[in-house]
Every structure is written in C-alpha cells, then in structure tokens.
Amino acid sequence: MHVLLVASAFNSLTQRVHAELRDHGHSVAVELALPGTDLAGALARHRPDLVLAPMLKSALPEEVWSAHTCLIVHPGPVGDRGPSSLDLAVQEGAGRWGVTVLQANAEMDAGDVWATVACPVPDPPVAKSAWYRGEVADAALEAVLLAVERFASGTYAPVPQGQGLARPLLRQEGRRIDWRTDGTERVLRVLRAADSRPGVRDELLGGTWYLHGGHPEDRLRGRPGELIATRAGAVCRATADGAVWIPELRAHRAAGLPAAPKLPATLALAGLLPALPEVGPGDADGPGGAGPRTWSDIGYHEEGGAGYLSFSFPGGAMSTEHCRRLLDAYRAACSRPTSVLVLGGGRDFFSNGIHLGVIEAAADPAEESWANINAMDDLVEAVLTTTDRLVVAALGGNAAAGGAMLALAADEVWCRSGVVLNPHYRLMGLYGSEFWTYTLPRRVGEARAERLSAEALPLSAAAALRLGLSDRTLDCPPAAFAARATALAAQLAGHPGTAARIAAKKARRELDEAQRPLASYRAAELERMRRTFFDPDAPYHALRRAFVGKERPAVTPAHLTERVPGRHGAPRPPRASDVTGTDAHDGAPGTVGC
User: Are the C-beta atoms of 403 and 356 separated by less than 8 Å?
Assistant: First the structure.
C-alpha cells in the first residue's frame, strides 16, 4: 500500500515507522501537521491508501478523517486519553502500560481500536524519552504493523473503545518539586517524566531554569535544595533524604522567543555556580560497583576477556568536552589486556554527533563547531587505528550523522532490532567528517554511500544489516541488550579465530594506509567543513539555530513529501567473522535473539 504519515514532527518514532513500513514493502511519504497546512489538499496530492499518525499533537480536521481512514498511534492503553499519557505514567509510577492504534474521529483518542499491544514498564525505571524510544516504540511498531495488516485485509472491523479516561495536559504546576520535603524517589519520578521535554521549571541560583534528566545519588548529602557537587558537567542537588544528579539545564525564556538550548548543567550555570567539589565516579561507588546508586556518563568494566566502554550522553549529543573525555577513556581501555573492546551497549542513543546546543551557546559558534568536529575526528581516528584488538560498536539505541560514523569506525556493528540509523549530514547543511568518506564506502560501496547521504532517510536495523552497515541484529527488548552484547563479546573474545582476525585487521589497515592515508580523508573532509563553519551565510547556521530553538519548518521538507518505495530483500549472507553456534534466530543470518 501507499501510506501517508502525518506527524507533528519527524521524530524518532515517526522515523522508525517510516523505515519499517518500507521494510515491509509499503511506499511511504510524510506530511507535517504544521500551522496553516492544508492537510486535505496534501492528501489529494498524495492519494494514499491509508493515513497513519505516529506522533500527532493536534487533532486532524474533519474533512481529513471523514474522507480517509486515519489511524492514530496513542502511547497509552485502550481507554487512556490525553496529551500527557507517558508523562503521567512515569510521574505516577504506572505498573502496566500499552500502546493503542485507533481511528481518528471527532473526539481526541476516542476512536475505534485497530490494534493494541502491551508495553513493559522498565524496572528499574528509566526516563520518559528512553522508555518512549525503547519499549513504547517496540510496542507501537508491533501495533502499527498489525493495524496496517488488518486494514489491508479489507475484512477487519475495528473495536469501539467504550468509556475512557481523558486526562488533562500535565503542566508545570503538576511537575513542581518541593526540595525541602520531597524525597529522592519523588524527585526522580518528576524529573524522569519531563527529561526531554518540557523539563521541570525551577528556581536555582537566582534564575529560572528547566531541569532535564535525573539520576539517584545515595551517598552524598546536603541541605535540601542546595547544590553539593559536580561531575562530568552535571550538578548534584540534595533532596529531603538524599540527592540527585541533574545533567542538563535550559534557561527559561519569555513566550514567543526560541527555546534556549539544553546545556550541560555546569556550562549553563557558568559564572553563577559556587565552588563545589568535582566528585569522581569512583568516589561514590559501593564496593565492587554494588551498593549505593550514583551516576556517570562514561563507565568501563571487563568480563570474559572483553572490555566494555559504556557511554551515554543526553540526546546523544557529544560536545568537545564529551569527545575528549571519551577519548581519554578509550585510550585507557586500550591499555588493558583484552582482545575485544565494546563501545556503547546502553539502551538509548549511541551518538548523534556534535553538540549543536553547546555550539549555539558558544561565544563563537564557528570556532566551537571547529573544535567539536576535530574532537570527534580524534575519537574516530583512535578507533580506526586500533589494531591490537577487535572493536565492536554496540548500538542499543539510535545513531545519526557523526555518531553513526563513529559506529562504522568499529570492526563490527551490532544493533538492537529497534535501532534507527541516519547515516547522513545534509539536513544540517554539512558535508560531514568523522572519516565517513572512508568508512561508509568500504561497507556499502561508493554508489550506495552517495545515495544514502543524498536521500537522508532513516534506516531500520533490518535495512542496516541488509545493506552491510551493521553485522549483527540483536532481537531483544532494550533492557536485555547490554547483557546480550556482553555475552556475545565474551564469546567473540574466546573464539579461536579472533587472533587471526586481529592480525588480518592490522594488515588491512596497513594496506589501506599505504593506498591513501587516513590523514588525507580527514584533511579533505575538514576543508569543506571549515568553509561551512566560518561562512556566516552558510545554511548550517540557520539550520542549527532552528534545530536548537525547536523552530517548526514553514513547510514539510521536500525529501519527506516524496513517495519512497518499499524495499524487500533478504539480509546479507553471513560473513566468516560472524560468531556461530547457538545464536541463530529464526534462521536469519546475522540476527540473534536475546
């Protein structure tokens, strides 16, 4: 069928639906529900068989839903209604949840049900956005594919909902934290329910800020409400019975102005922050890593002959400082006697490349852009030139732009089945760096590399495997990914052929270097990036400001309105490097279950 996606934004779930519908053979196009948009006219142009709304913040007009079957993805169980379903589920500590695909009608979220799928509530709890991109997105895709199949059959009759519970928008009044009396668990629920948007509005050091993200701290203590420590750009704030780490802040701005960028908390508070101790990750850990809870954005451990360098930066954005700290940790990990080193392995974003928010807030955005891209290149080059062990990029969450290229620098790329890749830069007006002109063609060929960068469309994990962008798909829930990647890495470290692979890798790197040095790729890429960064009229600057300020486009971007055909095809044949044994899943080469 031809499916038109109508969405308020081309967000992570909309991208995943776009990619996976194509995988199932459907053609897809997108129209954004922007102010003043003539959706009825858009439908007349697209002539879709079905309209699907993966993420919609406003009601469809009657002339649309009365003339076309329009299916709405609601991130809540049958009967749940309202715009703050996930926020309330996280803040109130819901024990059970679901996702519903319903038909649009005159009442928001009240239409007949085409599909509903149970959605696990993570335990231990995670932030709303991590839940949304993980378990909620998995359930949503299952429900969407079922609803589309039922619609295509022409025989299915959707089921009326019956009486539902419509709940109002959760406003800042309902998110307020009383630092004098609220304990850590209540504070964490409020912070997690607002971590990405809208944040929790609060007063801090004489200003009004939105707090983004929250992690527990069990050992540090202070007067409730006061800032007591810093770590890796985050601030630690005391609660009534403990403390929490807050990684990011966003300055409050008057209505009508573009949103301020989310920044590492210590950077946002620069010039206001009192002298506080910088607490290292080990200073608050319990013996053997157990016991008291704490937080760090970078961690390392070893198991089964493999090293695991985990990192998790808010929104997947990596500032100059993030890149430098991760490079230091990478070099330290490479000093250890392991044969396999795993990068990533977390449940949410792997990386989305340079930190546009920090760049936008810099006194000289061009200089900060240049520093950031060079720091990213330093990190990627370190991965590419590691020849004494195998490096695995383990993507439990999405990756884009330079973050996708960081993954491709590894010897193997393992993706969770729900991952979405965006291996391109052009939507931000950039040519790109991170050695993409070396790594992307060596995996998919020159022609396909050019097409992927020009099309600028999301790819599912299945498509990435089929194209050769990844080597293994782990079909498992988000919470199981880290353990599964750990077990596979230990298996790889103990495989009798691993030593030969490391030797062959070293020889291949030497041959590639003799044919064209890595420095040549880097210099050519950076020459084009530098011209863009330091040209005040380059589109990059306006696109960056719009992205950081959450500005809506005036129209749907042309590459989204184009009809993209569905793509069928088997995954690539297994490579000799694939770990064999008991890992086959449903007979699909390269895909393993958890």
Answer: no
Q: What is the pLDDT of residue 282?
A: 60
Phi–psi pair at 219, nearest 5 degrees: -105, -35
Q: How many other CB atoms are found less than 10 A from the CB of residue 551?
A: 13
Q: Would you say 418 and 478 are in contact if contact means Cβ atoms under 8 Å apart?
A: yes
Q: Is residue 292 in a domain?
A: no
Contact (CB, 8 A) for 444 and 467: yes
Q: Are residue 147 and residue 187 in the same domain, yes or no?
A: no
Give the integer Cα–Cα distance in Å for 407 and 426.
19
Q: Do the bridges between strand 2-7 and strand 27-32 make them parallel or antiparallel, or are there none, so unpaired? A: parallel
Q: What's the CATH code of the domain at 258?
A: 3.10.25.10
Tokens at 257, concatenated: 């102005």
Q: Are residues 134 and 182 in the same domain?
A: no
Same domain for 385 and 266: no
In a domain, 290, yes or no: no
Count of domains forming the chain: 3
Q: What CA–CA distances, in Å, run from 593 to 392, 450, 565?
A: 18, 32, 29
CA distance 409 to 425: 17
pLDDT in tens, 504-513: 999 999 999 9
Helix (H, G, I), strand (E, B) or coil at 212: strand
d(CA 103, CA 69): 7
User: Are 20 and 68 spatial neighbours (Cβ–Cβ below 8 Å)?
Assistant: no
Helices (H), ranges, 154-239: 184-192
Task: State whether 189 and 148 are in the same domain.
Answer: no
Say yes or no to pLDDT of 582 above 50.
Answer: no
**Are residues 194 and 143 part of one domain?**
no
- Per-residue pLDDT tens digits for 478-510: 999 999 999 999 999 999 999 999 999 999 999
User: Of 246, 276, 306, which residue sits at a domain end?
Assistant: 276
* 256 falls within a domain: yes
Continuous segment of H or E residues that includes residue 72: strand 70-74
Alpha helices in 253-397 (DSSP H): 265-268, 320-334, 356-361, 365-384
How high is the mean pLDDT of the chain?
Answer: 93
- Is there a single domain that holds both residue 307 and residue 427? yes
Range of the domain at 16: 2-166
Burial class (CB in 10 A: 0-12, 13-18, 19+), 469: buried
Q: What percent of the chain has pLDDT over 70?
A: 94
CB 590 within 8 A of CB 572: yes
The reply to whether 309 and 451 lie within a common domain is yes
E strand or H helix at 473: strand 472-475
pLDDT at 345: 86
Domain annotation covers residue 470 = yes
pTM above 0.85, yes or no: yes
> At residue 377, does pLDDT exceed 90?
yes
> What's at 96, amino acid-wise?
R
Q: Find tokens 């500005």 and name the residue.
A: 551
Whether residue 150 is found in the same domain as residue 271:
no
